[in-house]
Specification:
six-stranded mixed sheet; globular
């Protein structure tokens, strides 16, 4: 094991030469040299003193590497004040995700490091960028015109990690003046963080020398006729004027910037590189979002297709676009991927699948060159969901890639746990003033202890995004129906500019077509704690949401989107523990008994327990 810390040098300043693996969280700033984290390059120009960035490397996903080819001096500071580390106690699956075990060296409080070879020998899941990833990133940077990269593949193969890596590479190519320069020019990148301060003695590190080309885990293989004639520098010039990277997230079950249930479009500025998994950089202000209310596009494929077209219509034509697709490529998933290919018309496709031996076996080529015949009607004679199909379509550059985590080594958390992490961070998080990213967390109170916001029911309309939600009852204004339909339900928060409250103050429950529903802008999630009568006798929805009141008013939220999405039961367990500690009967726990929010005939059945969920295309009652 190399001698990292020289005598007399403490943990607040590290001299890095080579590569190390980190676990935990901290803020950092660079004094000299260049530091690279998941494709993003940090220097004193964009991450110096007073401009510290945040680093998150939990064991819930692959651990990040810190790399420096020519050597750098980096200052670290503990980042425990944000409260994120307390998420370890929220659920058994989250235990010790921000903590390291034996063999790790603690640099500052909450951040541990280990040599790459030692971590690999211990079976730790470490993100190792393959040579094929770097080659494709260089081609994207060198390609003339606006790059549009579509990332596809099966589940748990590294699509999201590659999308973060490519986003960081594009952000690092933005110059300090906000325009893209040559490859290697570094702009302001990284997340928000406090300025580094001296918290101890200096620290140095003398690790093994680093070979920038990396030892490839597999030979990069590509298909189709495409030749990169410029591999030295990027053809991006100051005339492009890119100031951000666009990220279109079509992975409904495991979104990058929002909790599950959304497809969304984001503009990533150069000051917000992705140095952590999704639950560490959730946002309350996407560029555009559409709420599907499910973790799979197969629940309502027509709505998914219409939402994709709606988001693409809002994308800017003067900035790079990265599209992260869902992990579904068989059956209906193949049809949906074909639809996305025809709609997006990418210049590059990053495919996390096996390379076909012949053109006849090339599924992606066949999907792109054959017409898409999906969903040619919306039930009213229209053509909602039909993608544009100009002839002929140019064949994109397709690269077949491998995962960044070696086969047989998996992170601590499953995709289901990753969704739970996002829900916990979303509902118990808060954004700093002037920021749209949730960066402060308080997991101490139970879910029922969060402050609810009362929204008059007469100002709202309720729409269904799920084919299983039976909302169109004749007695829609009945309080009994409202309690059963809304209490304890997860809802999408949206604004409908054409909605006008009814004169009689009754709840408006229209029946919309897919096209209009997919065009409705959504902004986040809410949990309906219940429906109560106010002093004036009017009903009000008690809503739990991380969106601050000022933002709710500015966004003019007037629509609740009710789908099939449900929260993990672990979020409600704190209520059961609280009443048990107080010596109260368990049926008095909020959200379990929902006193006053359940019909007398079904008081022993928690509201929401009859929500249908899709499991292997078979409907079962949970």
């Amino acid at each position: 094991m190399p001698r990292w810390w020289e005598e007399g040098i403490g943990p607040w300043l590290m001299e890095l030469q080579g590569r190390v693996v980190c676990c935990g969280q901290a803020s950092f700033w660079v004094e000299t040299g260049e530091l690279r984290i998941l494709g993003c390059t940090y220097t004193a120009a964009n991450c110096g003193a007073g401009r510290a960035k945040s680093l998150f490397s939990p064991k819930s996903s692959g651990l990040l590497q810190l790399e420096s080819a020519g050597g750098c001096r980096v200052h670290f500071r503990a980042l425990r004040g944000n409260g994120l580390g307390a998420i370890e106690g929220c659920q058994a699956a989250f235990g010790d995700i921000f903590s390291a075990g034996a063999g790790w060296r603690e640099v500052v409080g909450g951040l541990w490091m280990m040599g790459v070879e030692e971590a690999q020998g211990a079976g730790v899941a470490v993100v190792q960028v393959p040579a094929a990833w770097e080659a494709l990133a260089e081609e994207v940077l060198s390609a003339p015109g606006r790059p549009v990269v579509l990332v596809c593949g099966q589940r748990k193969v590294g699509k999201s990690t590659f999308s973060r890596y490519l986003t960081n590479r594009l952000l690092s190519a933005i110059g300090d003046d906000g325009e893209l320069g040559e490859v290697g020019d570094v702009g302001e990148v990284g997340g928000n963080g406090d300025a580094g301060k001296n918290v101890g003695m200096d620290a140095g590190m003398d690790a093994d020398s680093y070979n920038h080309s990396h030892t490839p885990t597999s030979t990069p293989t590509h298909t189709h006729t495409y030749t990169n004639t410029n591999t030295s520098t990027s053809t991006y010039t100051s005339t492009h004027g890119y100031r951000h990277v666009q990220y279109l997230d079509l992975d409904v079950g495991q979104s990058e910037w929002m909790p599950s249930g959304f497809v969304s479009l984001h503009e990533v500025p150069r000051a917000q590189a992705l140095a952590g998994p999704p639950f560490t950089h959730l946002t309350v202000q996407p560029r555009a979002a559409r709420y599907l209310g499910t973790t799979s596009p197969g629940e309502n494929p027509r709505l998914f297709c219409a939402a994709v077209q709606s988001l693409l219509a809002e994308a800017r034509a003067d900035a790079p676009l990265i599209v992260n697709c869902m992990g579904w490529m068989t059956g209906l998933g193949y049809e949906l991927l074909q639809f996305c290919l025809h709609c997006v018309r990418p210049t590059h496709v990053a495919a996390f699948t096996e390379q076909p031996q012949t053109a006849h076996d090339d599924v992606l080529l066949r999907a792109y060159t054959t017409p898409s015949v999906l969903f040619r009607g919306d039930g009213k004679g229209g053509r909602a969901g039909t993608p544009p199909q100009p002839q002929p379509l140019p064949v994109p550059r397709v690269a077949y890639l491998d995962s960044a985590v070696p086969e047989g080594v998996r992170a601590a958390c499953s995709p289901s746990d990753q969704r739970s992490l996002a829900f916990w961070a979303y509902f118990f998080g808060a954004a700093d003033a002037g920021s749209a990213v949730l960066s402060r967390f308080d997991f101490a109170p139970a879910l029922s202890g969060l402050r609810a916001r009362a929204v008059p029911l007469r100002r709202l309309q309720v729409l269904s995004t799920s084919r299983d939600a039976a909302l169109y009852a004749a007695d829609a204004t009945c309080a009994r129906w409202l309690h059963r339909a809304l209490a304890m339900r997860v809802v999408g928060l949206a604004h409908d500019p054409r909605f006008r409250p009814r004169a009689d103050g009754a709840l408006h429950v229209p029946r919309w077509g897919v096209a209009r529903l997919a065009a409705l802008p959504s902004f986040g999630l809410g949990l309906v704690r219940g429906v109560e009568a106010q002093e004036d006798g009017q009903l009000a929805v008690l809503l739990l949401t991380p969106l601050p009141p000022a933002l709710l008013r500015a966004l003019r939220i007037n629509t609740l989107l009710l789908g099939a999405l449900t929260l993990p039961g672990h979020l409600f367990n704190a209520d059961l523990r609280a009443v048990a500690a107080a010596g109260v009967a368990p049926d008095a726990a909020p959200f379990y008994s929902l006193q006053g929010c359940v019909d007398a005939d079904t008081a022993d059945v928690p509201v929401g327990s009859s929500v249908h969920k899709a499991r292997h295309n078979i409907k079962r009652v949970k």
